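Rotation project, supervised by the postdoc (A.L.). Task for the rotation student: set up a whole-complex structure prediction and record inputs and outputs verbatim in this book. Inputs entered:
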Amino acid sequence: MSTNKVIHALYNDDDILMDAVKKVKSENHHIEEVFCPFPVHGLDKAMGLAPTRLAITAFLYGITGLSVAVWLTWYTMIADWPQDIGGKPNFSWAANMPAFVPILFELTVFFAAHLMVITFYMRSRIWPFKEAENPDPRTTDDHFLMEVPVHGNEEELMALLETTGAVEINVVETH
Amino acid sequence: MYQFSGKLKMLAIVLMAVGLLGTGYSFFSAPKTLDDAKEILAKQDAHHGGHEATATHAEEEHVEEAKVEEHVEEVVTEETQADSTATQAEEHVVNVAEQAQDSTNVQANEAEVKEEVAHTEAKEETHAVAEAHGEDHGDAHAEHALHQMQNRPWSAMYVALLFSLGITLLVLAFYGSQIVAQAGWSVVLHRVMEAISSNLHYVSLVMLVFLIATAMHMNHLFTWMGEGVTDPTSPNYDAIVDGKKWYLNTPGWLIRSIIYLAGWNVYYFLIRKWSLAQDNGDLKQHKKNYNATVIFLVFFMITESMASWDWIMSIDPHWFSTLFGWYVLATFLVSALTVIAMVTIYLRSKGVLPLVNDSHIHDLAKFMFGFSVFWTYLWFAQFMLIWYADMPEETTYFLLRFNEYKVPFLAMVVMNFIFPVLLLINSDFKSRPWFVILGGVVILAGHYIDLFVMIMPGTVGGQWGFGIGEISGLLFFTGLFIFATFSAFAKANPVPKGNPYLHESETYHYYNIEHTGEDSNHH
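Outputs recorded:
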């Protein structure tokens, strides 16, 4: 059954695209990918994509950053070489804690932000010199493209996409 | 339309009645004479002897010691009367503060026995100074404690009064900010915020009575109002307060206070009237409300800051902090948003807010979260700058709080920062009503403690507690709040149907959350 064929249906309006996505989903066709020039609100819900867990990773990275900062301030200021600097209490970490709060805060934010961004790049497979995966350059400007793999009746799928208001439908061989 | 149920009205009246009775009792049971105070102190001392090793003992020890320290400060100030130059007075205060600090270090690092020594030493020193004066200060300690005990019912009431007034005022100011920002999401909450703000009239009235009673010297909450503090020939002379006389004087204080209250009440009266008038959809009315609110917000920012100096900071007239007004603002702002969220959730569960959906609750919870962090930022900025520089005349403020109010002082940071941050950081949790209520209760309790720790150390010092007086104050103002809010809400259409942003608010939807059961059916 399986072929290497996909259909590229192009739209020129995000509202029409949304309706098309809902219609194709309701006919139980799998949508491989949708390419848009800008974020379309509600598209992920319409496509049934799982919510992102990026925020959870950021929270964990933040805790990591906080721990690093606690360790750093404790080791350098209290454990390794406790000097009397301007009368600040260095008997224990807690006694001098208020002085460490700015760095605790900043390192928490630093870790949360940067590690989350790197996670995003890795999960999205984005890096310098990466070859663009864009099937049609118009999708970066003013067109929306829905990619539906062909399983079984190609004619029927073409006919369905025709009814969704696509401005152009191409059948493409993939490798 | 909402019907103020008889049951709820009854609850409000019962709360107020119980609160009044309890407050009356706490005034009645406060010591009247020096002998009463001595008796109580003797009881406390006996308690000391009995439980040498317990933790409570250690705590009370601190209390006693700090009291003596305070006392030393007083006596030293009196001593300066002979020299009567301001510079020297300041020097003395510095010395005393340093002493206080030294003894804290002792407390922190050495055994209880040493504390006892420091304690006695301080006491002896006091007497030495007093004797050098040739005056009888034998009763001075008891007299000091007597004043604190007599202040307690007043302070208990005052904390609850200010808490209620501050929350109500900040609900009004938040409402104003929504009008000026032309916020689309919050229009369906306008009537809720108006209803809560109606409490302002009632609390202002109580505040007015309190202000007049205070100006008539019926209590000793504000030491700078005391007899002879600005008179160089008086034994009570205080050079530092004398230097602030141009601002801290009773008539000026009273007049300023009345201006703040009048200004806020006039704005509330007008905006409520005009908001109801706008139900006909007149856009001219909308612009008029906008303009009035802009003027109010400018007035509010100035008066809120000044009110926090007059009503809270001047309780410790030797101490000052520049961001105090903002800090007080943040405390009340978080509490105000929490109260808006709680009242909204309650009314929605009664089915009288059909247009409020989970996204509105989510936004309120986001504000609660954000302003909790903002409060912490200001609280810490104030604390850390003073801790870091450790200038004696500023540090005494926190020293007193950290030594004598350690539990509330630290609990407050957990309740106002760590708890809301962990609870309300999750987007799903923020739209769950019971979660918001749970977070809200802790936030409100935390900010009550915050205000408690601002007021109490300067008025009752070591004689603090959380008893009938404090609880009664809270009950009374909670009752008043319920009565004012829900009777005002019952008087108007819950939907401000003339507002041009109503539709935007009705269809408001935050993309990230799944709406559940209690929801509007409008989209």
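Student's summary: Chain A has a mean pLDDT of 92.
Supervisor addendum: Chain A touches chain B at residues 41-42, 55, 59, 87, 91, 98-99, 101 (CB under 8 Å).
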